[in-house]
Amino acid sequence: KSVVSDDDASQRERLTEQLTRGILECLVCCDRVRQHDPVWSCTNCYHVLHLKCIKKWAKSSKAETGWRCPACQNVTSKIPYEYHCFCGKVRDPEWNRMDAAHTCGQVCGRSRTDRRPDCAHRCTLLCHPGPCPPCAAQVNRNCGCGKKLQLVKCGSDQPLLCGAVCGRELNCGIHHCTNNCHTGNCLECQKKVIQECHCRKVTREVLCTQESSASKYFCCDGLCEKKLLCGNHLCSLKCHPGPCPDCEFSPDKVTHCPCGKMSLADKQIRSSCLDSIPTCEQKCMKRLQCGQPSDPHSCQMDCHIGPCPVCPLTTMVKCRCGNMDREIACQDLTAKADDARCEKRCTKKRSCGKHKCNQLCCIDKDHVCPVPCNHQLSCGQHRCEETCHRGHCPPCWRTSFDELYCECGASVMYPPIPCGTRRPECSKPCSRTHSCEHPTLHNCHSQAVCPPCTVLTQKYCYVVHTVITHIISNFTAPCHQTELSCGLPCNVNLPCGRHRCILPCHKGQCIKEGQTCTQPCTTPRSLCGHNCSAPCHDGACLDTPCKEMASVKVTCECGHRSMSRACSDNAKEYQRIATSLLASKMADMQLGHSVDIRDLLGNPSARKLSLKTLDCTEECRLIERNRRLAIGLQIRNPDLSSKLTPRYSEFMRQWAKKDPHFCNMVHDKLTELVQLAKQSKQKSRSYSFDSMNRDKRHFIHEYCEHFGCESVAYDQEPKRNVVATAARDKAWLPSMSLLEVIQRESGQRKIPKPVISST
């Protein structure tokens, strides 16, 4: 359908003026179309472009059906190679200043059938660009129903309606149109026709058409079941037109016995279709479905009525793929002997290389994969429509012939544009409307939502502890952030009236609805002086055992084991000791001696006492034995429980001679790690060495074994490093370092000074 502007005259005049002045812009090269340049004009939108530009465009955007016009996307099958005037009469027209550019100066004479097919008149203007004007010739035309004749302009598009009833014959050929005079075809007949099936069992209503009005009967696909002429049997055919056939059991139809060997025409045995059909004494010998095609089996029963029984023989069956070649009982045979299928599934790969054939009794050579690929294409919008294949999917074939602009319209990408192409980048600021009044700090983009404004502004935190401006206490307050926390404790009075909120600055209420304050009670106890520590409550504190860990440590006799007890347990232990001590002092008083009872008064937790109530273990005795042995042998580390002299490998000895500074550094770091692990409350402590080469890492791994530490290497070369982990209960200190062993072997032996305990 032709696409023509509403104002043809203005388009024609505008093109004529722009071409004559040489100011029309080509859509492909964006350059001016000069008066002497060869041009091409679209027959659909009448846009004028350079001939050389349209050649390149047509070759680059050619598809199966042709190429698209860059202005209106109209498909053209042929690529233009010649320069003609607008009416097409003159090739390579010369520019005459008296006429419009690219015209021949002759009468246009173009046909107007593209606008009105029944117009036989041609354009009477001189050769011109743009669409031809509507035909002004006077012609006689009928109205929509054809009853009235009127004189109108040939190019007029106004419909001619007389206002009377149309009365034209409808599609059924029986009824007529009852609408008023109108253009175009009449609607289909909407009246209903009742039809009955041939066997007179079913009726239906259908729209009135030529087919339905020609026949009042139809086939219902049910059994006919009409009585035959014999009067004894019913018709076994489906619902059918015409009379039913004769009875198949009538004497005229049955002229031989069931096997067909004995004639019954001369014997006059049967006189009615109800009489039984006599059989002969010979074999049936009817051909069965089993057996080889060259030697099929036959029925070996005596002449009988009805279908032949199952064959008792076997058939040699060979499937088409050659996997099955054996005898099968004829009663188990489901297909012909030369068309049997085995149950073996093909395990070969299909042409895609991904799926297996998996067909039964397969004989294909090229196992084509029928599964659709359906993988997402590179455009991210469509999926591959080919069958499953090898390699990457082809690029999306869809192409857009519309210009692709950035969000603000400053940058443009010209067609053809492959599917999935992103909008062109634009360096201008984003032109969208933003919620704040700050200047835009991001460029034009195609995302649905703009990035948040990051201008630092003055805002208050939840509890209004402080005004968060540009940077206060390492907190930033960007414009887009509406809810801020200063990080300080909330410190708002709780409903209990005894505590303040200890949570960081937060939004909403400190305690949710239905909850109560659960902070520990700070009321001091009367006995020990510690806080109550029970959840916040009203009224007097309950007399419950104090769970506060006392400052008094409980040790064993040797002092190796030590632990802290709860205040209540420590008080009970002190009372037991004090009771026994009081009993001994009372005995002294009875003997007349003076007694000092100041040690029995006051709070045992307030006095830094050490109660030796723990029992020594086997470890305590082992440490005491090692201490005495170390004193006798003058060993520096009296707590050592392992071998006296470690055995370092030859690799470590070479490193000690090569780089003693590095070896001493590793020894010091591991010693500090083990000591820290022994003193820490945690189960283990770790230390990460700096990045180093493979040999140094190997040295650290071996040295960790002599300290009882675990070592693991992390990261990739060249930043690979070693992390050593010392467990509190498994790590130890070696009796001699690697450098001390080397010095002893080289004759530089130093006798360490013994460490003698004060006890």
TrEMBL record:
Pfam short name (any one): R3H
The entry's keywords: Metal-binding, Nucleus, Repeat, Transcription, Transcription regulation, Zinc, Zinc-finger
Location in or out of the cell: Nucleus
Residues covered by the PHD-type domain: 23-75
Residues of the R3H domain: 663-728
Superkingdom: Eukaryota
Gene Ontology biological process terms, A to Z: negative regulation of transcription by RNA polymerase II
PANTHER family (UniProt xref): NUCLEAR TRANSCRIPTION FACTOR, X-BOX BINDING 1 NFX1, TRANSCRIPTIONAL REPRESSOR NF-X1
Organism of this sequence: Zootermopsis nevadensis
Protein name per the record: Protein shuttle craft
RING-type domain sequence ranges: 26-73
Gene Ontology CC entries for this record: nucleus
InterPro entries xref list: NFX1_fam, R3H_dom, R3H_dom_sf, R3H_NF-X1, Zinc_finger_PHD-type_CS, Znf_NFX1, Znf_PHD-finger, Znf_RING
SMART domains assigned: R3H, ZnF_NFX
GO molecular function: DNA-binding transcription factor activity, RNA polymerase II-specific; RNA polymerase II transcription regulatory region sequence-specific DNA binding; zinc ion binding
Annotated family: Belongs to the NFX1 family.
Main location: nucleus
